[in-house]
């Protein structure tokens, strides 16, 4: 059996930065809360809660005298202004790639253009992006976009600026672009899919194509982890999405010749290491058993 770990598995730049900012806040001895879970990984959230950094749901819940940490997904203008209005110390861990999208949609509206956001409407990053627009239009897929455009042909001549959720797939973005290009007469695109996401997905697909089984490590609430599992399933017969090493289906994995491991952008390195370590231990057992039976044959 051979086990291969994708080089891009684990924290992306934005998540690493956000987690680093929380760690720094703890080191400085500040009282702080995070607005929503700092990342989509309950192990990390619990780790910080044990250090006194708890999660709150709205600006009103921030205790007086506490700093508030904005996660990498960012927040809407209304939320940002509500925090400012309370005079709180704001530690902004919004990923710079996400902040760029906030600027693009604001500029688009300032120039009389209509932002079109391609992404999952209820995803916090998309909610935040929409929250920087006066009239946001969000489409989860090409079908929804096509329907909205077909509903009123007058829409075809509106000036549109199209952006994407950073963790969308290239396939989804390309299909939406194709649909819009066909009918819209005044369209500009900003391919805002994060390259870290794109690389991770491409690497996962390539690795999955060479493996009998793929292990995708991450929190089930993490949408980029779910997407990775989905992508791997298109290239590999067996895909296991696990939260941590204790969820590994060892009897099934022992049957596989080549196993690949990848992980979502919010999966901490120690969980990936633990999974890799468990698989390497089985690997040694399997190899030793193979060696023994080989010796028996001699
Ligand atoms: Fe930022 Fe890309 Fe990560 S947008 S939060 S570096 S997935």
TrEMBL record:
GO terms for cellular component: ribosome. [4Fe-4S] cluster binds at residues 12, 95, 194. Keywords: 4Fe-4S, Iron, Iron-sulfur, Isoprene biosynthesis, Metal-binding, Oxidoreductase, Ribonucleoprotein, Ribosomal protein. Signal peptide: none annotated. GO terms for molecular function: 4-hydroxy-3-methylbut-2-enyl diphosphate reductase activity. Isopentenyl diphosphate binds at residues 40, 73, 123, 222-224, 266. The active site is at residue 125. The keyword Iron applies. (2E)-4-hydroxy-3-methylbut-2-enyl diphosphate binds at residues 40, 73, 123, 166, 222-224, 266. Dimethylallyl diphosphate binds at residues 40, 73, 123, 222-224, 266. Catalyzes the conversion of 1-hydroxy-2-methyl-2-(E)-butenyl 4-diphosphate (HMBPP) into a mixture of isopentenyl diphosphate (IPP) and dimethylallyl diphosphate (DMAPP). Acts in the terminal step of the DOXP/MEP pathway for isoprenoid precursor biosynthesis. Belongs to the bacterial ribosomal protein bS1 family. This is 4-hydroxy-3-methylbut-2-enyl diphosphate reductase. The gene is ispH. The chain holds residues 1 to 298 of 646 of the full protein.
